[in-house]
């Protein structure tokens, strides 16, 4: 592909992407969505915490 044509196509696509980005409106996610992500975050934190320390056996 000739470099001038490549540059023209790239410029055209970049202009389209900029226009789409300005038109995009981010809606606030629903409760189910937010709770789901919180559960994922909690699970990741629990897995990174490592195993719980061993407890000493009780003798009665």
Could you explain the architecture of this structure?
By secondary structure, the protein is an all-alpha fold. 65% of the residues lie in helices and 0% in strands. The radius of gyration is 26 Å and the shape is elongated.
Write the layout of secondary structure elements.
Layout: H1 3-23, H2 31-48
State mean pLDDT (0 to 100 scale).
Answer: 87
Q: How many DSSP-defined strands?
A: 0
Q: Please indicate the percent range of residues in DSSP E strands (runs of 2 or more).
A: under 5%
* SS class: mainly alpha
Structure keywords:
single chain, 60 residues, mainly alpha, 2 helices
Summarize the structure.
The protein is mostly helical. It has helices at residues 3-23, 31-48.
């Amino acid at each position: 592909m000739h470099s001038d044509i490549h540059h023209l196509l790239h410029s055209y696509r970049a202009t389209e992407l900029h226009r789409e980005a300005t038109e995009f409106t981010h809606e606030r996610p629903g409760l189910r969505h937010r709770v789901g992500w919180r559960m994922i975050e909690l699970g990741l934190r629990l897995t990174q915490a490592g195993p719980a320390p061993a407890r000493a056996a009780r003798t009665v």
